[in-house]
Amino acid sequence: MKKLGFIGVGNMGGAILKGIEGKLGNTAVFAYDANKDKLADLTQVGATAAVSAKEIADKCDYILLAVKPQHLGEVLAEIKDSVKPETVFISICAGISAEFIRERTIPNAKVVLVMPNTPMMLGCGASAMSHDSTVSEEEFAFARKIIGSCGITEVVPTDKMKEIIAINGSSPAFIYLYAKGFVDYADTVGIDKQAALRLFAQSLIGSAKMLTESGMTVDELIKQVSSPGGTTLAGLDKLYEGDLTGDVKRACEACTKRAYELGQ
Fold it and tell me: Where does the pLDDT of residue 79 fall: very low under 50, low under 70, confident under 90, or very high at 90 and above?
């Protein structure tokens, strides 16, 4: 029987915990969080509460790290003496490298890195994952099954895990800000904000399906909506004039820079 332990069951850890219910077969699940209130409903998802992070490390062969990056060092210091060579860490801590975990536990610790995003809370997540040769394909497949319980997963090179944060981890916030601009515009011209939000949200869903299912490139999709001399092209001209794509790139670069700072 596999034993999976969660250290941290906040928004993301809690979403994964709920997502795996009934999907991992013969697996015992344990969870610990410094906020004991978050452990109250564990039995409803088939998990057992632990009294400490150390207990998780003592009992489990897979440990999912779901604490804030700035608190991870403290957690690893607590569990260091309980980490075994066969322990597999699954870290969803943004900007944290495998080396960071190994330096604070054991030199050859097995580490799977994950960059999830908040739509995981609705089972619609998009998570980037990576591992190196210390992790077997069987171990990685199990980790991917855990994370995939809440959405899709994509494998990326380990040395790009900080760069990918902007693409899937932070991008929901950028999209929400974009949505705010449309909804605020609707309000200024007398359109009900909730109606506008529903229309725009569905437009996002439909556009996402076009991106993934139409077989067309991004440029082709833009052209498909943009009739010469039409309304869309008039709006696009303003976005090009304001260098929207340049702003997006700069936002991504800022995310990556901060990820490297957090990983020190």
Answer: very high
